[in-house]
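User: If you would, consider this record:
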Amino acid sequence: MNIEKFYYDEQTEMYEQIKKERDEHEQSLSVEEREKEHQKLFQEARTIMEKAERKKKEEYQIINPVKYQRYIIFRKNGIRSAVSYLIGIYVQVWEKLAEIPDAKRRFNAAEHLVHTTKKNHACFDFDIRFPKMPSYLRRSAIQHALGTVSSYKTRLDLWEKTDGKSGKPKLVYENHAMPVFYRDVMYREGAEGKDEAYLKLYDGHDWKWSCVRLDHTDMEYLRKCWSGKKASAPTLEKRHQKYFLRFSYKEEVTLTKTPVKEQIICSVDLGINTDAVCTIMRADGTVLGRRFIDHPSEKDRMYRTLGRIRRFQREHGSAQTQGRWAYTKRLNTELGKKIAGAIVRYAEENHADVIVFEYLEMQGKISGKKKQKLHLWRKRDIQKCCEHQAHRKGMRVSRICAWNTSRLAYDGSGAVTRDWENHSLCTFQTGKRYNCDLSASYNIGARYFIRELLKPLPATERSLLEAKVPPVKRRTSCVYADLRKLHSEMELLKAA
């Protein structure tokens, strides 16, 4: 039912009833009595309408608070405006604040500048501009503003030391600060089983508790998967012109402590032709399973959007492709999540203790074509997502040197030759044709075990093994065949 229409109809009916009764009663009154009665009835009608309007507003806030959230949270008295105002204050007095080395004392001094108490008189009118702001929000805004000004001053000093070779840093007042709704003081859970929560919001005059309806499917997921876990304070987020509450939970997880010789690993090669190739391996080199993970339809969709972007750039320039690029990146991110989920599920099915990846350079700018950039971005996302999911299931994540894992054959025959017609295949120096991504996954698992087997050994024993298996001295040239040889030599040494 439309709440707004319901209460306006109710008001109209009440007013018509009062008018009818008044007309009947007026016929029996004198002129003076009629004037007095008019004033009285008018006042009663006005009171009824005001009560109905108040009730309508309260009900409307409960049923549909989304309309009000933009106003009550981000208006003139919201946290973003508070942060912008504080940045302007602290940049003026930063020289004095910078003299305080202790972070806690500096924060207290910054708060005393803007907040009046019985023992402190503020130098600025923050309390007047933002009246009755809860202490948690005020302190969060102060912390955010101090961090912004400190970062700006540091960048400015570095720029001055470099004699202004690069662009001068700017102090950005327009910020994207989001409030954290601390439990019990800013956020309260609704009744058990109900999809609602209570937030303390600013209505233009005061900070009041408002009921917010939450999505039923989201709440069912939280009850099912995160019941009993320690919950952190929810944070407000803005995504795609909409506002969301982000709930964070803490979970204590004990990672596996299986000895290296008893471990089962899942070595993963994130290839170009295939999304991922997984190999389940033991410490002696025994291969327990293999799986090729690929999502060709999702990749085709993403590469089609890249083609559209290229054609659009040729016709209209690159200034208007921002929306298309954002869509392509979202497709790339979703593909990465699917691949990561498939890897972790396969590792869990085979009771793997460790998931092994190649080490990818995570810092700096990415050079190359747009397709290559998207591919590397996806590799980064996959590794990060796998790490989070694996830790929740008690599995560890390890990384090894990526040099020559695809270039060298797993059987130790040397460098491979790629097939130009089918880039996923390669030819060994022995003439054997093999999948190059699968060969790389063998080498990745072997390098992990070689490193972990040699690391705890005494120097003399390690040197003896390296003398018998020379390739293990260099991590960049180790292959699967070297692991087999190393394991045989370790068994012989143990037997002797």
